[in-house]
Amino acid sequence: MGIGLSSIGCLGFLFLLQFCVYFQILFVESLPTCSENTTLAGFESEFVMLQHQLRGVLAVRDNCSFRVTGFDMLEGSDVRWWGAKGDDFGNLTNGFVVSDERLNRTYRNESIDVRLGSNVSWDQIGVVAVWDLVTGSDFGHVLVSEKGNGSESSGLVPIPGGDGSNSSSVGSSGFHQPTMFENCKMLSEKYRVRWTLKEEENSIDIGLEALTEVQNYLAFGWANPNSTSGYMLHADVTVTGFTEDFVPFAEDFYITDYSECSLNDYGVPHGVCPDSVYSVSDPHPVNNTDVVYGHRKDGVSFVRFQRELVPVDDKYDLQVELNKNMTVIWALGRIKPPDSIWPYNLPVNHGGPRFASYGYQVLNVSENIDDCLGPLDADDKDDQDLIIAYAKVPLVVTSGEPLRYPNPPNPSKVLYINKKEAPLLKVERGVPVTFSVQAGHDVALYITSDPLGGNATLRNMSEIIYAGGAEFEGVPASPKELVWAPDRNTPDLVYYQSVFTQKMGWKVLVVDGGLSDMYNSSVVLADQLVTFFWTLSHDSMSIAARGEKKSGYLAVGFGREMVNSFVYVGWFDDDGKGHVSTYYIDGRDASGLHATNENLTYVRCKSENGIITLEFTRPLKPSCPQGERPECRNIVDPTTPLKVIWAMGSKWSEDHLSDKNMHYATSSRPVRVMLLRGSAEAEQDLRPVLGVHGFMMFLAWGILLPGGVLAARYMKHLKGDGWYRIHVYLQYSGLSIVLLGFLFALAELRGLYVSSVHVKFGLTAIILACAQPVNAYFRPKRPENGEVVPLNRIFWEYGHALVGRGTILVGMVALLTGMNHLGERYGDDVKGLTWALIVWFLVGGLMALYLEYHEKERRTIRFSERGHWVLGNDDEDDSADLLGPTETLAQKEAQMAGRMEVQLEPIR
Asked: Residue 168 to residues 164, 200, 229, 249, 493: CA-CA distances in angstroms?
């Protein structure tokens, strides 16, 4: 029984085997024949890395297949093998799929055999590319020719001071592409070192690759084997990274201390300093590091450099010994850009845990090592500049040469927004976005769902157009305005593109709400690198500040300059947690920075792609007495322009601040923010109109109006009505000048805000001054000679005199507060002018006292002379009409003559 079952099983297996062989023969016979009679058989070349961390080597096997080895690639959307006649924009975008295979996952150092499509041959192919059909993206390609991907297609980043060609340092190793090396070692999960040894050239090519932010450095070097104080001291390290213009650099450093580079009291450098700092007078070159290539792609920084194995400089450089284990050290951290003190890109203390931000390993460069499995995969792969659109702030759209276009291939010119190449644009739903299109008559802007643009209907594709069109084109002399208001139905991702040409623009991220919705007003501060937002309430002010440039910290201050200002600093600790700290600055170095304890609420600090935004709410007036602490003087008066300044730097810390926390960018001038009006203007000298206003008010309140009062008080003893005419002319002239000066100030400031002390006193003085002529018009009639003066006449005369004199005093106070307002508004030192004004008033007061003394003497003499008359001794009317002439001289002489005649008649 068992034998029968076994026999049946064997027969079944033989039958199945025979069927499979027969099927294989039929299948092979049905395939088109493939011969090796192609001139490209045996051709081999590396891929040019453009996106998605693509690496690999392509080898042509025969007339209808090729093999790719060492293949690395991050996953895309719908990625295919792509063929084209050439590697230019036109040929690549008009290319075709060469194989039915799909690259629908992430590849990690893999080998792939690829068969060309049935209708495809090598005669049709000049370029083999890895192509994403959805985004029209070239991840990388190989020029299929006898020459292959030589130095002319390596896409090296130009190095300042060089000729733009680095082929000699790359091509002699067997690899032509600067991203390809013979060896690779993992330093940490996010940091790798690649190298190719060139013993015959006494050099080694090293590539540093890390998942880090673009403003961070990548450091790698050899520890001194003779050091007894740890691996870092006396180590020979190369610090690499990118400048603010995205140019790669590699600088040779020597470490003498566990600190950032600085000079001691004797001017000797110490810490982590460039070799050139130690040997300024050394005739031999001290920087034995040459940068070869660098790029920033998919959130990964990569820099390739070359250094000597046996250096010329044996004082600050170490020899890299072959066939020997040596200790290497590495670090990641923030770059401090060059400033007025140090013209170098200096590394800031790396911080962070060991083996994540820094570490050491043993390495033998002569060994063949490749433990880098697959590409580095960043969470945030978009490295383009980020521009956030705000209401009432137009975005200027121009076109220019592509330098760092994020989605190759690209045409000969691409779109720029606010002078940034194809930035990532972020808009908020419900907030209108204004574009000022001035990119040329051949570039029409539109917002579309199609990632390629260029009118998708021409490619038999569908798209949704949200704004713009063929008519939205313009030039700088005649820009075209496009206003787009994304709504709740707008997708999270759309694209700004040109109607006429594909792939000129990039992505638009549409988000819910934001700073423009949360704050009532916003202005762009000096140099257009920081935007300031605010909302006023009854007794508090909500504030936000956003940098438009990547930085390690962002500071905004209230004051004309950093010294004597109150500063709010948004920064992040080693754990990435955001903070907002407050300070008062009374000096220009770290010792002048004093932490304060302001009552801030609703505090937030966040960073997006290195762009920092800080937010907080503070009271308009601190609750503490002004003299108690410095922050008690930090009062915000909404009616007075708020002077706002800003600064950016690489690194901040809550404690142990030093000159190393110095900013590398700061506002060139303060901006005066009109909190009530929601506008701003640059700090400037006193405007001529306001200067005229001040002079006119001094002329009126300091000369004319007081002169009119003095004339009415001390000139009535003169003959005729001259005192009256002087009084009236001076008062009306002064009042006219006051009103004219008031109108000048009102027109220049574009509004009237009565909360400031100066405006309150000024308006009070003007109202009182205008009331005096009205008061004079309704004065009671003066009694005839010998009649009793009515009570209302007495009240009027005293009231008119007291109000006039009080008006003069209020006007003088308005002049003094105006000087103080001048100092607050323009930051000028007005103490000298204020004292000069006070002296002027004191001189006027002394003159009035002198005149009052002589007036009393005159009255005493007059009364003593009247005491000689026997009869009809009629006192002169001391309460004479203040605004009208008392009597003519002839009338007064006639009255006196009559009185004398009565007095001389004999008594009968």
From this structure: 12, 14, 39, 18, 43
Give the H or E element holding residue 680: strand 679-682
Helical H runs in 593-721?
688-699, 705-714
Q: Which tokens in the block code for residue 457?
A: 């209907």
Exposure string (b/e) for 520-557, b if CB count within 10 Å is 16 or more? Answer: ebbbebbeebbbbbbbbeeebbbbbbbbbbbbbbbbbb
Amino acid identity of residue 852, one-letter, is E
- What is the enclosing helix (H) or strand (E) of 466? strand 465-468
Contact predicate 568/593, CB 8 Å: no
The single-letter code of the amino acid at 209 is: E
Position 8 confidence tier, pLDDT thresholds 50, 70, 90: low
> In angstroms, how far is CA 568 from the centroid of its own chain?
15
Residue 347: what are its φ and ψ, rounded to 5°?
Answer: -75, 140
Which residues are paired to 67 by β-bridges? Answer: 59, 113
**pLDDT value at residue 353:** 83
- Which of these, 62, 76, 66, 74, lies nearest to 98 by C-alpha position? 66
The phi, psi pair for 906, rounded to 5°, reads: -70, 150
* Half-sphere exposure (Cβ direction) of 631: Cα atoms closer than 13 Å: 19
- The amino acid present at 813, given as its one-letter code, is V
User: For the chain, what is the total number of helices (H) and then of strands (E)?
Assistant: 12, 47
Alpha helices in 722-756 (DSSP H): 722-749
Instruction: Look up residue 52 and give its amino acid.
Output: H
d(CA 328, CA 7): 67
Please, which residues have CB within 8 angstroms of residue 805's CB and are 6 or more apart in sequence?
Answer: 709
Q: Place 624 in a pLDDT band, splitting at 50, 70 and 90.
A: confident
The DSSP output letter for 906 is: P
705-743 per-residue burial string, b: 16 or more CB within 10 A, e: under 16: bbbbbbbbbbebeeeebebbebbbebbebbbebbeebbe
Q: 594 forms bridges with which residues in the sheet?
A: 584
User: ∠ at Cα 442 (439, 443), nearest 5°?
Assistant: 45
CA distance 411 to 831: 62
C-alpha R_g of the chain: 43
Bridge partner list, 72: 55
Question: How far apart are the C-alpha atoms of 765 and 139, rounded to whole Å?
Answer: 76
Give backbone dihedrals phi and psi of 891, rounded to 5 degrees, phi first.
-65, -45
The answer to whether residues 181 and 194 touch, using CB atoms and an 8 Å cutoff, is yes
pLDDT at 687 over 80: no
| d(C-alpha 611, C-alpha 508), whole Å | 17
How confident is the model over 166-183, as pLDDT tens digits?
A: 433 444 446 789 999 999
* Amino acid making up residue 493: L
Q: Beta-strand (E) ranges in 85-165?
A: 96-102, 107-115, 127-132, 137-143
- Cα gap 678→761, rounded to integer Å: 25
What gap in Å lies between CA 791 and CA 778, rounded to an integer? Answer: 15
**What is residue 17's predicted lDDT score, i.e. its pLDDT?**
55
| Closest to 502 (Cα-Cα) out of 359, 632, 405 | 405
**Mean of pLDDT over the chain:** 82
Question: Side-chain half-sphere of 762: how many Cα atoms within 13 Å?
Answer: 27
Distance CA 597, CA 630 (A): 9
End-to-end CA distance of the chain: 190
